[in-house]
Amino acid sequence: MSTAAIIPAAGLGLRLGGENYKAFREVGGDSLLVHAVRGLKAATAADLVCLVVAVPPGFEESVAKELEPYAGDARLLVVPGGAERPDSVRAALDVVPADGIDCILVHDAARAFVPADVVERVVAAVRGGAPAVVPVVPVTDTIKQVSPTGEVVDTPDRSTLVAVQTPQGFEPGVLRRAHAAGIVGATDDAMMCERLGVPVMTVEGSQDAFKVTRPQDLLLAEAMLAERRL
Ligand code: CTP
Ligand code: MG
């Protein structure tokens, strides 16, 4: 029973701003990417045997060198990412070994602080027979659907809404089929599976698995890390 993890880390980080690619931005002295790899490795029950990271083209060698000490006995592969997130995931998926893997995780480098128990819940659900699994947390804002002119059209019942995180976990054949299907407009890998009619199961996520997106998220990350290190 072995898991492969794909880490899309090739995004520009436009909403975060700054001089560097988002995955290379540092919190507490380490890059978000290093934190993300550590987080996956900490989930020992996942049996991570292969780690594929999609990085901005040209950074393959330097990232491989940087991550080697953190990969441990997992095989580390670094590939150039693509223009959009699904392109980066697909580039990584193409080099995931075909044999000996019973679960593929897709985990954003930007969700650098995911706790090990979230990763392990996702993997356990896939091993338990769920073809696609996403960690979720309750929505705290009231969400409204609005028209193109800004008028409120509807207020969905909040108790039926959740926010979705990563790692998302997949039975390998399902993820490969989803990415081969040429689906456009899917904002995550689970949505591709939904489009194919594959049931997607939820497990409990964590507030700590928030996505570093905007500048204030870096402040939150610094504070959270400082508390963890106490
Ligand atoms: N990602 C990627 N390849 C892309 C775009 C995004 O691998 N072409 C990765 C990012 O590096 C990140 C994850 O997908 O780890 C989630 O994307 P997001 O949070 O949107 O990051 P960015 O696209 O970098 O940020 P922004 O949208 O603000 O530019
Ligand atoms: Mg983006």
Which descriptors apply to this entry?
Spore Coat Polysaccharide Biosynthesis Protein SpsA, Chain A, alpha/beta, 22% strand, single chain, 230 residues, eight-stranded mixed beta sheet, two-stranded antiparallel ribbon
If you had to describe this structure to a student in words, what would you say it looks like?
The chain is an alpha/beta fold. The chain has one domain: Spore Coat Polysaccharide Biosynthesis Protein SpsA, Chain A, CATH 3.90.550. It is built from 7 helices and 12 strands. The strands form 3 sheets. Strands 1, 4, 5, 6, 7, 10, 11 and 12 form an 8-stranded mixed sheet that branches. Strands 2-3 form a two-stranded antiparallel ribbon. It is globular and about 50 Å long. It starts with a strand and ends with a helix. The model has no long low-confidence stretch (mean pLDDT 97). The site of cytidine-5'-triphosphate (CTP) has 23 residues, from α3.
SSE layout:
Blueprint: E1 3-8, E2 26-27, E3 30-31, H1 32-42, E4 48-55, H2 60-71, E5 75-80, H3 85-93, E6 103-106, H4 116-127, E7 132-138, E8 145-146, E9 152-154, E10 162-164, E11 168-170, H5 172-180, H6 189-195, E12 201-204, H7 215-228
Parallel strand pairs: 1-4, 1-6, 4-5, 7-12
Antiparallel strand pairs: 2-3, 6-11, 7-10, 7-11, 8-9
Helix pairs in contact: 1-2, 5-6
Bound molecules: cytidine-5'-triphosphate and magnesium ion.
Q: What structural class do you assign from the helix and strand content? A: alpha/beta
Count up the domains: 1
Enumerate how many helices there are, as a single number: 7
Architecture, CATH level 2?
Alpha-Beta Complex
Low-confidence stretches: none
The overall pLDDT, averaged over residues, is: 97
Helix proportion range: 25-40%
Shape: globular
Give a list of the ligands: cytidine-5'-triphosphate, magnesium ion
Q: Report on the biggest sheet.
A: 8 strands, mixed
Written as H for each helix and E for each strand, in order along the chain, the element string is EEEHEHEHEHEEEEEHHEH
Instruction: Return the CATH topology.
Output: Spore Coat Polysaccharide Biosynthesis Protein SpsA, Chain A
Q: Could you name the CATH class?
A: Alpha Beta
CATH superfamily: Spore Coat Polysaccharide Biosynthesis Protein SpsA, Chain A
Q: How many whole angstroms does the radius of gyration measure?
A: 17 Å
The termini sit apart by 35 Å
Quaternary state of this entry equals: single chain
Please state roughly what percent of the residues sit in beta strands, choosing from under 5%, 5-15%, 15-25%, 25-35%, 35-45% or over 45%.
Answer: 15-25%
